[in-house]
Amino acid sequence: MDAQRDRLARGARLLQKMGFRTKDGVTIGRRRWWSAGTPAEPAADINAMFADPEVRAIIAHTGGFSAMVVLDKLDYALIGAQPKPFLGMSDITLYHLALFARCSLVGFHADDLTEGLHVPLGLDEARRGTLLALYKRLLTEPDPVGPVAPLTTWEAWRDGQASGPLLGGSLKRLAALAGIPYFLSLAAFDGALFFWEEIDETLYDITLNLHKLRHPVGILLPRTDRQEWEQEDRERGHT
Asked: Where are the beta strands (DSSP E) in the chain?
């Protein structure tokens, strides 16, 4: 817990260095099994941050293991009436998609405070500075940011050009929403550019989840270790 608090403090100092004032959610530091309290507690925390006029943007402390059970407790009418940027990754995908489905709030799939902003992300100082400058422009300037130069090397598996709404997040969390009221209609994926992140998942399960979402015109995927997947297939007797 002390290490997590240290990462949180370092992330907050970085935001302050960027010119932002910070305010902790009341559930930070709480512990109930794998979550920060009962489902009603983080929901009340999120609702209060959207209702607070002094809070201009919300960034997740870390991924939200309990996010799925919190969704029923959110006040979507309040959030829709008080929209503001909500940043996070991994399990925070559940919040992003539920808020988009229920009140058309566009989420920012970005670093969590302690799982991204406080660490160098494998980027050198110049590229990290570029990323932080992009975050600041997104949060403080009304104009679109325009083309964003890649920070790492990209690989094209199929050449071509495509355009459309950008949708995505954690693949297994997105797939987990299917069949409940917080999932987007499949029509929302028609013509979309789909991006996803995944960790510690088999190629088999990734394929199943992607097949459910086969509507996009393009897919942006994270850097992957093909040799690791190929080794996994050999061990399972697949060819």
From this structure: 58-59, 86-88, 108-109, 166-170, 193-197, 218-220
